[in-house]
Amino acid sequence: MLQGPLLAKTGDLIRENCSVAVEPRQRAVTAASVGANITISPNPATETLTVSIGVNDGDMLQLTLFDLNGRAVLRQSVAATGPTTIAIGHLQPGFYLARLTDGKAQALLTTKMILQK
User: Most buried of 7, 46, 95, 98 (most Cβ within 10 A)?
Assistant: First the structure.
């Protein structure tokens, strides 16, 4: 398993209170922070992404995919508990940034994703 720090922004502070793990066998991106357990899989993806989130509250979160030009190409509400499957087959193959934000537009996770056909 590969691990490295993930920066989390809270207000005006940027903290390294998260860790990111990419497990080659499962091909998933995971993040664990205070009160959150987030998995986006598979990576690389073909037709769908599954976002699994376990947080202490039942709020809805937002997943936004950005192309490498910084354009938002997909926005999807995601339940804060349990898995959500998102269709991405209509997008062009390539590299994307996936950003998961809470109701206050604070980023919980930003990671690279690959879409293959």
Answer: 98
Mean pLDDT, residues 45-69: 85
Token pair recorded at residue 79: 């339940």
CATH of the domain at 43: 2.60.40.3080
In angstroms, the CA 33 to CA 73 distance is: 27
Identify the residue with better confidence: 72 or 53: 72
| Overall domain count for the chain | 1
Rounded to whole angstroms, the Cα distance separating 74 from 24 reads 26
Which residue, 52, 3, 10, 38, is CA-closest to 24?
3
CB 57, CB 27: distance < 8 Å? no
Q: What contacts 105, CB < 8 A, 6 or more positions away? A: none
Range of the domain at 76: 2-115
The overall pTM is greater than 0.85: no
32 touches 20 (CB < 8 A): no
